[in-house]
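Work Package 3 (structural annotation) set out to generate three-dimensional models for the target panel prioritized at the project kickoff. During this period the team completed the workflow that converts sequence records into discrete structure tokens, so that structures can be stored uniformly alongside our sequence database. As a representative example, we reproduce one entry of 292 residues exactly as it appears in the project archive.
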Amino acid sequence: MNAFTIKDLENLSGIKAHTIRIWEQRYNFLKPQRTDTNIRYYSSDELKTVLNIALLNKYGFKISHIDRMQPEEIKAKILSLGDAKAIQERIVNELVQEMVDLNIEKLEKILANYISLRGIEKTVIHIIFPFLEKIGLLWVTGHINPAQEHLVTNVIRQKLIVAIETAITHLKVDKTVLLFLPEGEHHELGLLFMYYMLKNRGIQTIYLGANVPVKDVAYVARLKKPDIVFTHLTATSSSFNFEKFLNGINSQFNDIQTVISGQLTHSYTKNIPNGIKFKKSLQEVMEYLTSL
């Protein structure tokens, strides 16, 4: 059984820890256990309860009313929410719940259904990225098993690869983009999504994949002469030196424009070398794609 802290519940549900404590005092749906040092911890079922209640409360249901509902009634009310944002949040919550239970077949089915209705691009933007962002802190703090991370990311990876392989477009853009992840970076979901978006827009793409030394990228760049080099940084190793990486790109890529997205771009405060651009959000990446 997974054990979650009140901070985990706050991160996953968006409900402040203070409010969760008030709910515990006033209502019956949460009964946390405590460690020997009197610290609250919550079961998988309580996590699901908080996710469901937070969603209903956000879309107009009073907590006192929800507290009187039976589980089946709560489920029915959630399914009845018709707002597009509410539907997306419900699906993200379902993915969290299936991940916690290691129910990979159901998780894959949820993704497949949404892809069939909305396509891979909208699924990634509206479902997969919010889901990964929501559970990312659990991976960092160790409150879910690494096996859960691997299973979930591999399901998503497979969906992206299928989308890349089957992407067909009549568009043709006279540009080539080289995609890679630097040494120590193995999280390629963001890069695979970029591969799909480029291919779907008729842009020639060279995909080197994860954990590639800059000198090897430079070798390919000299031979293939891409217009743009792109990388997305999710969770580099502790020994990764971002400034050294930027300087290496600047010295070896022979004035090829390099675009970097991901979390590290948010905290870098030094001067960015000429020829390198940061894209700090998905919106900025999408706008850049549109400009190509």
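The beta strands are 33-34, 40-41, 173-182, 203-212, 228-233, 257-262, 276-279.
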